[in-house]
Amino acid sequence: MTAIVRELEGCGAEIANVSLPTASAAEIDLIRETVFRRGVAFLHGQHLTPEQHIAFAEQIGPIVVNRYFPPSEKYPQIAKVEKTETQTTNIGGGWHTDHSYDVEPAMGSVLLAIDTPPSGGDTMFADMYAAYEALSDGLKTTLAGLRAVHASEHIYGMDGVYGKTDQAHLAGKTDTPSAVHPVVITHPGSGRKALYVNPAFTLGFEGWNRDESRALLAYLYQHAVKPEFVHRFSWKPGSMAIWDNRATWHQAMNDYQGHHRLMHRITIAGGPLAA
């Protein structure tokens, strides 16, 4: 059967009629192009072994071993994103872009659902292409000259926010990089402009004070998650999302207390970001 791409409202596209263990080079190219163009590609029915998961991710790009999440048994390339039946805090529960605190941020992730709750646990994705394009010409001009500071210490460091929760194993780290990136980047795969700040890791604008930065960032944050830019994805075992950190935000919903949720995530290396 021929692969079918169905664009979704708000953000992303769903790809049907592809079995990743036997995907052709043309189908891999289609997945990569869809991710670059739509920010995230969703697939269902991909019940992969860890070896198959790794082999597929390597066709998208080089793998980066995650510095904060615990690895899956025997497979350091696969990070476990897990919330147990007794935990109340989930991972990634606020809007964010992974690895924006790195000098060369990760291109994206390949996330595979292993165990999902009977309901809830959806992930929201927001389109940063569309968010940027909907801004006024005047604000685009202002943002074009700005760079923003991104950091990880306040999340994963010795006094990081996870340390105050039942996901404390994610905090207390000493490897907590920071970086400065353009506020508006040009995506290297699509050539389109995208907004590149996020609520979790962006501290402020280079050369601006905290109050000045807070006011403009607050506007951009509420603008970027307008309903017309957002898609809510529902998982079941075997569902997969391949997303591009340079063109999307995401947020995992924490509405399944008392149930287990386990996802296997592989991070794909990126590179420097340019305006």
From TrEMBL:
Domain TauD/TfdA-like: start-end pairs: 6-267
Chaperone among keywords: no
Keywords: Dioxygenase, Iron, Metal-binding, Oxidoreductase
Enzyme Commission number, as recorded: 1.14.11.17
Keyword Hydrolase: no
Domain of life: Bacteria
MF (Gene Ontology): metal ion binding; taurine dioxygenase activity
InterPro entries in the cross-refs: AtsK-like (IPR051323), TauD-like_sf (IPR042098), TauD/TfdA-like (IPR003819)
Gene Ontology annotations for the cellular component aspect, listed alphabetically: cytoplasm
Similarity field: Belongs to the TfdA dioxygenase family.
Protein name: Taurine dioxygenase
Origin species: Phenylobacterium haematophilum
